């Protein structure tokens, strides 16, 4: 009985305690404008799970279980404030705005700095400013977001490879790829076995920020791999006292954004007759662009959790992403998991950070070039189906593309783990040692197969190409950092050592001649009847590095940054194994001077200047060493056996396939930069202006020897005196209205002007792009010419059709003949300028944003038009555009010669992204005790493009090369881009 009474007394006590709960209410105002601030998070200190948010009028009310305590007020763009209370009480709280981005932390190589202390040219994009929608990789997140950075996708394929060009093209062999660093780990994407973008393995929703290190001062700390710039990716981490769960779900629908204006069936019949061609009329009316594309459906589900205490924080996520392209059998599936842990101990002197990302990637790719060619050239009078089955009796004995889709497949499965652990210990105040151990392991298998198929007009032997690739990248780093202040002097000294070892192994085999028994070739390799070809390769590269950096600040006014890195690479010969890459930068915070210290107009004004050198080691392995093979042809053998009657009886001899060259040196890029950062009018208007000059020397190429008597046809060397120069201006501006009002807006943008030129080249032209097929294979389209930009189009100047119905070209040298020496430079594939701008609007809980990007001054060679849209094809019942009938007197036998006839303006303006969002208060639907926020959104991607280019899309970069020199600006039947509408739901708990 006593126990029962005790329980009753306890229950009554609890009830009385609950009934005794008090509340604290009030209003939150901005410190400067004294207007209400909606959306402010209010919670009892130490109890963030019970947070409430202020309403549209800045009002809040929170229940408290104690009569006294501390409330915490936090909101993006304002300083967090703690206020004591005595319940019941009504408070009026003023929040001060954060001082623009001056206190923003920017991640740099091997550390971080406040934006106000940065002396280099660094572009930073935070997660809230990333491009929205269906996104496969980090490059898509920052397209148009950073001045001087041009992001170009190779095609419209899901997760397509990209060219990210930072301040112009500065190399030939290594292309434009920057170095990617993820959470302190430098990636190697050269041999992952993935045909699409190797960065697809990182879930974009796991990324917190992306920094682009543009000038040598910022990037020289990465030395030999920083000639094309550095992109530093930082993933999301947990925060103390904030336990969060976030669920996001999106669904996207993609369709062909633009159609090429080929003839309809009725137009086709008239046009074939008009050129006196042979019409093969199938009696149908088919739009092959509609028939061979689809509405691609994409889904993304991402669940993340984060939180922590004073001693430890965590962040974890799981993601599933399934993207469909507009071409069938074009899919990208990603299953990802990420874990970040941070732990402190020993009075916070010892800490450990752990990051791990694990991804399974499944990539299906169609024969895009063949499909696009069929979409544009197939006879529109042919029926797609006959009696419900694909038509097997098409014009010109073409195999029905629907059958081609069924029998062709290109599938890659990739498993990749990126993990690193970084313990650190502070020996004395400011002196910290850090060890970083990381591994990036990738394993992929790619099967390209064609099923056997036989019809009355077509026979296809089954075939299989299997490629297995493993890439093992291990990193060991030791750094020592010392931060100390003495009076007005502030120092940060960094010293470090790094060792990285990369092993790439690849095995492949080709089989053909499989039986048509309903079993895929990859599942019955033993049945192949044709000869098997096999190959394997193994590459091991090592990079040993020593580096140091000094940051010095005097009275927060005058800044100095000096770095030095020494890199030793196994790719180079014994005579030049090490390269040395210094840099120095100065900064002047002018607003710290007395004459501006009290200015209410100029809030920040900083002048920066830097000089430095970076390198490129992106050359094939082993090229400094001699290589041999055996041969018994020509002069490679000698008839030691007098009875031998032919070469089959001669012995094999050893011959060179590559000469040793231990003197090969690093490519070196020397860059100077002068920049100005400013903020005006209470930080409403901010911006940067930069001038840069980058000169690349010691250009590495594989070239033909001048002396015709050489044991090999080509050899690797540094080209003496050859230079690639890039100089230009970058401007970025941003303006934001008062964020505390019901209606606010922001507007901004950037523009970059870059002049690219090759000087002192000993070659008349190094071909970067050549024609393919159509009787023109190998004909030069563009290349590297002395005194001209990389990717300059070098061709005959088309002047029209002559009386004989054939092409006419300008006789530029006046010798009365049309020969190769009449070719002219007719523009460049590289744009003279790139630009982007945005408009963001917000009214209470509704927001609307637009992102535009564009380029100008570049040309595109329409290889599709040269190959397909000509009078001869039309006369033979292949579809074309009105290009084929542009000249009434043109002969059907006229050749499709490489010329300016197919060169078009590549300038464009694109509405890249538009998003409409609504933040639904959980309180409105009775879920305020469960959720913190609900966001609904709809996003449109690639909504329109303004351009004169007649192809699918003016952003052309097919990723091809000639002699390992990258091509630019040639449209080789590129995978067309899509227009996408994405619906999103984000719930925060």
UniProtKB/TrEMBL annotation:
Its main location: membrane. The keyword Membrane applies. InterPro entries: Beta-barrel_TonB (IPR000531), Beta-barrel_TonB_sf (IPR036942), CarboxyPept-like_regulatory (IPR008969), Plug_dom (IPR012910), Plug_dom_sf (IPR037066), TonB-dep_OMP_SusC/RagA (IPR023996), TonB-dep_OMP_SusC/RagA_CS (IPR023997), TonB-dep_rcpt-like (IPR039426). It is a multi-pass membrane protein. It holds the Pfam family Plug. Residues 524-536 have a biased composition (Polar residues). Residues 1-20 form the signal peptide. Keywords: Cell outer membrane, Membrane, Receptor, Signal, TonB box, Transmembrane, Transmembrane beta strand, Transport. It comes from the Bacteria. The keyword Disulfide bond does not apply. Residues 386-943 form the TonB-dependent receptor-like beta-barrel domain. It is found in: Cell outer membrane. Residues 115-230 form the TonB-dependent receptor plug domain. Residues 513-536 are annotated as: Disordered. Belongs to the TonB-dependent receptor family. This is TonB-dependent receptor. It comes from Flavobacterium hungaricum.
């Amino acid at each position: 009985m006593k126990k029962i009474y005790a329980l009753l007394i306890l229950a009554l006590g609890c009830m009385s305690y609950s009934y005794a709960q008090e509340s604290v209410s009030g209003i939150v105002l901005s410190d400067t404008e004294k207007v209400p601030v909606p959306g402010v998070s209010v919670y009892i200190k130490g109890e963030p799970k019970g947070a409430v948010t202020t309403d549209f009028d800045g009002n809040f009310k929170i229940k408290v279980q104690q009569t006294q305590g501390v409330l915490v007020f936090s909101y993006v763009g304002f300083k967090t404030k703690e206020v004591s209370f005595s319940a019941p009480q009504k408070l009026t709280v003023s929040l001060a705005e954060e001082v623009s981005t001056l206190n923003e932390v920017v991640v740099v190589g091997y550390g971080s700095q406040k934006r106000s202390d940065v002396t280099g040219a660094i572009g930073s994009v935070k997660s809230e400013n990333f491009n929205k929608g269906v996104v496969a990789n980090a490059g898509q997140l920052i397209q148009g977001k950073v001045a001087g950075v041009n992001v170009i996708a190779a095609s419209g394929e899901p997760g397509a490879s990209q060219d990210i060009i930072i301040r112009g093209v500065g190399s030939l062999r290594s292309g434009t790829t920057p170095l990617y660093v993820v959470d302190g780990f430098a990636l190697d994407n050269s041999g992952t076995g993935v045909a699409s973008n190797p960065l697809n393995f990182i879930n974009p929703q796991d990324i917190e920020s992306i920094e682009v290190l543009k000038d040598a001062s910022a990037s020289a700390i990465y030395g030999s791999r920083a000639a094309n710039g550095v992109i530093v990716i930082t993933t999301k981490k947990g925060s103390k006292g904030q336990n969060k769960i976030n669920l996001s779900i999106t669904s996207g629908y993609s369709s062909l954004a633009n159609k090429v204006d080929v003839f309809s069936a009725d137009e086709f019949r008239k046009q074939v007759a008009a050129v006196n061609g042979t019409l093969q009329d199938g009696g149908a009316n088919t739009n092959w662009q509609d028939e061979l594309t689809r509405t691609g459906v994409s889904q993304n589900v991402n669940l993340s959790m984060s939180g922590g205490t004073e001693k430890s924080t965590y962040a974890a996520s799981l993601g599933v992403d399934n993207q469909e392209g507009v071409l069938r059998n074009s899919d990208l599936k990603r299953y990802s998991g990420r874990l970040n842990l941070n732990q402190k101990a020993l009075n916070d002197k010892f800490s450990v950070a752990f990051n791990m990302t694990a991804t399974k990637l499944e990539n299906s790719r169609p024969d895009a070039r063949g499909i696009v060619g069929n979409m544009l050239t197939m006879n529109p009078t042919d029926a797609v189906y006959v009696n419900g089955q694909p038509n097997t009796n098409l014009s010109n004995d073409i195999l029905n593309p629907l059958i081609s889709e069924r029998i062709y497949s290109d599938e890659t499965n990739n498993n990749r783990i990126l993990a690193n652990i970084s313990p650190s210990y502070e020996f004395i105040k400011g002196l910290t040692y850090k060890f970083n151990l990381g591994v990036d392991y990738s394993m992929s298998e790619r099967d390209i197969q064609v099923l056997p198929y036989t019809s009355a007009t077509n026979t296809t032997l089954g075939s299989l190409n299997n490629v297995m690739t493993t890439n093992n990248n291990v990193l060991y780093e030791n750094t020592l950092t010392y931060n100390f202040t003495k009076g007005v002097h502030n120092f940060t000294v960094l010293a470090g050592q790094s060792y990285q070892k990369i092993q790439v192994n690849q095995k492949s085999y080709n089989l053909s001649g499989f039986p048509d028994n309903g079993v895929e070739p990859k599942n019955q390799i033993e049945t192949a009847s044709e000869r098997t070809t096999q190959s394997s390769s193994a590459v091991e590269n090592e990079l040993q590095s020593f580096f140091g950096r000094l940051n010095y600040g005097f009275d927060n006014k005058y800044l100095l940054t000096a770095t030095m890195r020494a890199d030793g690479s196994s790719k180079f010969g014994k005579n030049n194994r090490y390269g040395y890459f210094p840099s120095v930068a100065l900064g002047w915070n002018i607003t710290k001077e007395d004459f501006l210290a009290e200015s209410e107009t100029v809030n920040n004004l900083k002048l920066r200047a830097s000089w430095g050198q970076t390198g490129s080691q992106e050359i094939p392995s082993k090229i400094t060493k001699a290589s041999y093979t055996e041969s018994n042809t020509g002069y490679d053998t000698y008839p030691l056996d007098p009875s031998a009657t032919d070469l089959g009886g001669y012995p094999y001899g050893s011959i060179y396939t590559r000469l040793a060259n231990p003197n090969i040196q690093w490519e070196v890029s020397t860059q100077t930069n002068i920049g100005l950062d400013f903020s005006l009018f209470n930080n409403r208007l901010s911006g940067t202006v930069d001038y840069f000059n980058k000169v690349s020397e010691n250009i590495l190429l594989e070239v033909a020897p001048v002396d015709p008597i050489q044991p090999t046809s080509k050899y690797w060397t540094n080209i003496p005196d050859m230079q690639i120069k890039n100089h230009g201006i970058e401007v970025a501006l941003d303006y934001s209205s008062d964020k505390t009002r019901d209606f606010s807006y922001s507007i901004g943008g950037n523009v970059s002007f870059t002049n690219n030129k090759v000087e002192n080249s000993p070659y008349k032209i190094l071909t970067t792009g050549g024609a393919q097929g159509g009787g023109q294979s190998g004909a030069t389209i563009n290349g590297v010419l002395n005194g001209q930009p990389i990717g300059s189009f070098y061709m005959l100047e088309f002047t029209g059709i002559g009386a004989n119905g054939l092409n006419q070209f300008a006789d530029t040298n006046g010798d009365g003949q049309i020969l190769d020496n009449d070719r002219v430079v007719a523009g460049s594939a590289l744009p003279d300028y790139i630009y982007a701008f945005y408009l963001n609007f917000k009214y209470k809980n509704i927001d609307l944003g637009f992102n535009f990007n564009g380029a100008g001054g570049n040309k595109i060679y329409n290889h599709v038009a040269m190959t397909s849209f000509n009078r001869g094809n039309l006369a033979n019942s292949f579809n074309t555009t009105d290009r084929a009938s542009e000249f009434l007197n043109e002969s059907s036998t006229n050749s499709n010669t490489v010329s300016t006839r197919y060169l078009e303006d590549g300038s464009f303006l694109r509405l890249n992204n538009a998003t409409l969002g609504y933040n639904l208060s959980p309180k409105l639907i009775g879920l305020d005790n469960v959720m913190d926020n609900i966001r609904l959104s709809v996003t449109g991607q690639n909504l329109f493009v303004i351009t004169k280019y007649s192809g699918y899309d003016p952003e052309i970069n097919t990723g091809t090369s000639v002699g390992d020199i990258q091509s630019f600006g040639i449209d080789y039947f590129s995978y067309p881009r899509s227009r996408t509408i994405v619906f999103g739901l984000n719930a925060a708990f």
